[in-house]
């Protein structure tokens, strides 16, 4: 398995899902193939962590990365950090989230560890929840994350348009998996 700065660096296919575990004590989601036959890892909350934090573990249960909510923020702001706590990126919801004709639209910025804008995203909620992440300079789609509105499960389908993590930090599996898992909010306790 590959490593980046001493942390595991799992490789993911261009299409996968992040799905709830039905029986869980702590918020947990599995990262699986589209057919859900192959497991690539899991996302799990750190109970009682202040601020809120969820962790990405590879299939061998090794910590890969985490996402931490900013302790004080008027908008949804998060830090993505590697297994050693080194900041990889930051996301922040724009204050201008609006409602257009029954369609809720939110805009997010994704910045690298130095604060440089690397990607922008939009999230819509209208018969389906969908997030599109675009390159900040070219506007080209990098990632699509979506969930069927009518689905009984909490499964997010992820499609990666560009897998070049050197060119686009936004497509790094350490960021994509945590971004998809954090779309429903993170309770401390899951379904019991």
List keywords for this structure.
globular; about 5% helix; disordered C terminus; mainly beta; twelve-stranded antiparallel barrel; about 190 residues; single chain; two-stranded antiparallel sheet; about 50% strand
Can you put this structure into words, describing what you see?
Helix content is 5%, strand content 48%. The C terminus is likely disordered. 33% of the residues are buried. The protein starts with a strand and ends in an 11-residue tail after the last helix. By secondary structure, it is mainly β. The chain is built from one helix and 15 strands.
Instruction: Write out the strand line-up for the largest beta sheet, numbering strands in chain order.
Output: 3-4-5-6-7-8-9-11-12-13-14-15
The counted number of beta strands is 15
Question: What characterizes the major β-sheet?
Answer: 12 strands, antiparallel, barrel
Number of helices: 1
Rg over C-alpha atoms, rounded to the nearest angstrom: 16 Å
Coarse structural class? mainly beta
Helix content: under 10%
Q: Round the mean pLDDT to the nearest integer and report it.
A: 80
Percent of residues in beta strands: over 45%
Distance between the termini: 34 Å
Low-confidence region ranges: 185-192
From the spread of the alpha carbons, the general shape counts as: globular
Order of H and E elements: EEEEEEEEEEEEEEEH
